[in-house]
Amino acid sequence: MPQSHPLLDQLREAVRDGMPVAISELGSLVRIPSVSWDGFDAAHVVSSADAAAALLEGLGVFDSVEIARAPIDAERTGQPAVLGTRKAKNGKPTILLYAHHDVQPPGNSADWDSDPFEPTVRGDRLYGRGAADDKAGVMAHVAAIRAFVQTVGSDFDLGLVAFFEGEEEFGSRSFANFIGQHREKLAADVIVVADSDNWDIDTPALTVGLRGNVTFKLTISTLDHASHSGMFGGAAPDAMLAAIQLLATLHDADGAVAVEGLTSREGDTPEYSAEKLAEEAAFLEGVTAIGRGPVLSRMWDQPAITITGIDAPSVVNASNTLVPSVTVKVSARIAPGQNAADAYDALEKHLRSHAPFGAHLDISDVDRGNPFLVDTTGWAVAEAKDAMHQAWGVEPLETGIGGSIPFISDLVAVFPEAQILITGVEDPDSRAHSPNESLHLGVFQRAILTEAVLLAKLDARA
Q1: Is the pLDDT of residue 2 over 70?
Q2: Residue 225: which domain range?
């Protein structure tokens, strides 16, 4: 163990005593169905922003707390974000605490063991949409500040910024404009992004590598209108056949990505067995892994392509016709080291050059996010890892993550001198974005304590 922080015992007690309130407040946030996607009631995102702002106001330490929006483009405005600021004094650093208060759609409620928007504790886990991703991140920041203030008092010198975004799950489309508009208020020496996971429920992790992403809608069309499948089948190419053949070219026989121009990165990874992958990813019996190389390399340092949605006639509405058009959602993860724009160009070139039967392709709704590698040589990384060690009682791991947090590249572009720390409250069984999403309450408590210790360490730093 490293040398204990002089306030560690007091901070631990404050965090422990504050857990019932933190869990209750998290439950109140989970009850708000703040899905930021088009087609969902945006009023719920407004309610969620109001609730998050009230939590910051209730801490009584911010100079100002506001709810603000930024434009996406000339015609659209983004979802509401919450911004709390407190200026540093006496030469102390400023820390920015980021999380997002919007959530993924719940999906089919029948796949949940309890109502997705009714927080439910079963065993040592709290279930509900957003319970982990990322309303727990919001509450980890709030509860850590609360424990810190209870321990040191409200007259501290550390600068604080709390930034709770409202559209991360919808691509952070107004993010760049928001930080441009609020650049002075958001400026910080250290930025903590609480939107990642831990190695397991007993071992903390600091995320140091993120894949980027390219997502778009792809429409494959072969016919001007539907035609009788008996009369023309076998001669006229239907769009479903064309889509199946085209999408199959994205991977080789091993399931590895087969798109020329998508790159991989060489890097060391911790030991992670195929058996552990099968357990944590919930393989059905007899199912085998895809790709090549070390398992974690496939998930952290290699590209991946997933078809996450398809618009076509449903089985119940199927008629004996040749389908004229099929639309799919393509989600590609880009290895660290590759620019997302170059990755998109490679994907578009591959799709257009492999379209079978002369099928027409239309690509729309394109989103791109660059990958990111953390500079681990800065003092803030050392302070964060030490805080994790003290709060968890074990050495933290430096890990990559297969998911993407595209806005981090925007933060780096605007605040190049800031040190980025990517933390989180999730664990391998949190099932973020999936039915039965949950938060392990022990991880939650240790994550809060980690951040409270980090705040105390930075407040004592010149």
Answers
A1: no
A2: 212-265+302-369
